[in-house]
Amino acid sequence: MIYLDNSATTKPYKEVLDSFLKVSSEYFGNPSSLHSLGGEAEMLLNRSRETIASLLQVHHKEVIFTSGGTESNNLAIKGCALSKRNIGKHIVTTAIEHPSVTNAMKDLEKEGFEVTILPVDKEGRITVKQVEDALRKETVLVSIIHVNNETGVIQPIEEIGEVLINYPNVSFHVDHIQGIGKVPLRMDVIDLCSLSAHKFHGLKGNGVLIAKNGVKLHPLFSGGDQEWTLRSGTENVAGIVAMTKALRMTLENSENCLSDLTAMKDYLLDELVQIHGVYIHTPNIQSAPHIVNFSVPGIKSEVLVHALGNKNIYVSTTSACSSKRKAPSKTLMAMGVTRQQAESAIRISMTYSTTKEELRLLIKELIQAINTIKEVTR
């Protein structure tokens, strides 16, 4: 099996699964309980929070555990906007955000908020000037994805953050879900940052929202006031411990193997550009080392996905959250890509265990599949 859909989800590390099983079986107490078993669970929870804070270079009280990226994005966007509605009701975002951001914005528009959506250039990028020009006195939030989940394009987050420091009423949220462990990011220029465990070899159902000291959030859940009163509900201690281990291991791999991953992306781009009829949408520069997006116009993306799947090679079309809707990628359409190209888009997403031999086999089977499909449909 050749798995190249790591932007949809990653395979959990064995050590992560071992941690989850051990905590689930031996430290299963509720961390809010007063007895010793609850105390042990609470200790693991606190230790995980401190470790994640250290890994991300933030304060442990700025770490909020969630159920994943979607909840982290919703808590950041809705929680921040609702807490500031007496200050202003204007939000700035981009045309290429993940659905969990886009739909959260739509919900806020129903509550009377106004959302400015910044267009992107042909490479899918915005500029610092666009953000600054969009700001108003009633702007309370800017939310921008760091690494686009479909094309891998990187936004100038740190430069935008430096500008927004001069606007004290504006909170800056960054969806860092695809970037963590692949594209470094300074946390000191960000107010809110979303992460999802299953994107870095943790388990589904766990995430993190970093909310910097002083940022106020309106809770989305009412209940027992866990997570600094911002996210009620009994914490998934086993999943959190496993997520902590996954984050540590992924960041270690980043230190040791990032250049190898970048070299494999360069190899993949070099091979794809030689295939007749292939259009590459991922820019060569300022893009993540693990994502490559391309089209084969005339061949529907799902047909190519199934053809490769028959060879046990697993790739994807658009975002996993949108791939079953049959609609063309809104990210590619925002970049000015033709509808035909957008409807034939394929995403390859690698991780640190991906090998060059796997990519060679991908290219071989891709060429064969393209030729076979074109022959059949001729």
Automatic annotation (TrEMBL):
Residues 2-361 form the Aminotransferase class V domain. InterPro entries: Aminotrans_V_dom, Cysteine_dSase, PyrdxlP-dep_Trfase, PyrdxlP-dep_Trfase_major, PyrdxlP-dep_Trfase_small. The keyword Repeat does not apply. GO terms for molecular function: catalytic activity. This is Cysteine desulfurase. Keywords: Pyridoxal phosphate. NCBIfam families: PRK02948.1. It comes from Sutcliffiella horikoshii.
